[in-house]
Design goal:
It is a single chain. This protein has 144 residues and is an all-alpha fold. The chain folds into 2 domains: 79 residues; 50 residues, no CATH class. 39% of the residues lie in helices and 0% in strands. Helix 1 runs antiparallel to helix 2. The longest helix has 20 residues. The structure holds zinc ion (2 copies). One zinc ion (ZN) binds next to loops.
């Protein structure tokens, strides 16, 4: 089974503390990829993959920016090894994008209405009781 670590270079200090969580998410990712697609809409089958991708980046982001629990060196390492998504994290630093689910949902050309994805519409602006479920990643609303 492939390890998360891809390069031969030894990882920075602290790696052993985050490795178990990353291994766990990686295992979930593999599971999601091989999961039976029976009875699901085609778009739905990729939702867990987006979700886990989000979780991995979020984990690293929180550790570094919020909890300050990992070093800059380890953070950079995770970005370089593509364990965390640098582009997604760059968005999280912007106001209003703190909880952004995935990059696709802000690519306007991908939606039917040439606007942001439904999950990016602030709750206050939605019709009452409307259930949000984005088709790209299954997000239930991530604005603000
Ligand atoms: Zn979203
Ligand atoms: Zn999304």
């Amino acid at each position: 089974m492939p390890k998360i670590r891809r390069s031969k270079k030894p990882p920075p200090e602290g790696w052993e503390l985050i490795e178990p969580t990353l291994e766990e998410l990686e295992a979930k990712m593999r599971e999601a990829e091989t999961d039976s697609h029976e009875g699901k809409r085609k778009s739905e089958t990729v939702w867990p993959i987006f979700k886990i991708h989000h979780q991995k980046s979020r984990y690293i982001y929180d550790l570094f920016y919020r909890r300050k629990a990992i070093s800059r060196e380890l953070y950079d390492y995770c970005i370089k090894e593509k364990i965390a998504d640098a582009n997604l994290i760059a968005k999280w630093k912007k106001q209003g994008y703190e909880n952004l689910c995935c990059l696709r949902c802000i690519q306007t050309r991908d939606t039917n209405f040439a606007t942001n994805c439904i999950c990016r519409v602030p709750k206050a602006k939605l019709e009452e009781g409307r259930i949000v479920e984005c088709v790209h990643c299954g997000c239930r609303g991530c604005s603000g």
